[in-house]
Amino acid sequence: MRRSLSVAAIILTALMSYGLYNMKYEVRRLEVQLDRQQQVLATERQAVQVLRAEWAYLNRPDRLQRLSVRHLELQPVEVTQLTDMQELPVRPEGPRQKAALLSSTEKRRTQ
Amino acid sequence: MSVFRRKARAITPEPVHSPRMTDDAEDILETGRNRLVVVGAVFALAFVLVGVRLVDLAVWQGPGTSLASLDHEQRSSAGRVDIVDRNGVILATNLTTASLFAEPRRVLDAKYAAARIVTALPELDRLVVEKKLSGKRAFVWLKRHLTPKQKYDVNALGIPGVGFREDQKRVYPHGGLVAHVLGYTGVDNEGLAGIEKQYDDRLSALTSPASAAVGNDPLRLSVDVRVQFALHQELSRSVEEFSALGAAGIVLDAISGEVLAMVSLPDFDPNQANIASGNAKFNRASLGVYEMGSTFKTFTTAMALDAGTVKIGGGYDATKPLRVARFTISDDHPKKRWLSVPEIFIYSSNIGAAKMAIDVGAKGQRDFLGSLGLLQKASLELPEVGTPMIPSPWREISTMTVAFGHGIAVSPMQLTSATAALVNGGFRVDPTLLARQPMATPQGPRVMKARTSSVMKRLMRLNVADGTGKKAGAAGYLVGGKTGTAEKAGVGGYRRKALLSSFIGAFPMNDPRYVVLAVIDEPKGKKETFGYATGGWTAAPVFSRVVSRIGPIMGVAPVDEESKSVRNAMFIRVKAGG
Question: How far is B113 from chain A (nearest CA, A)?
Answer without folding.
Answer: 31
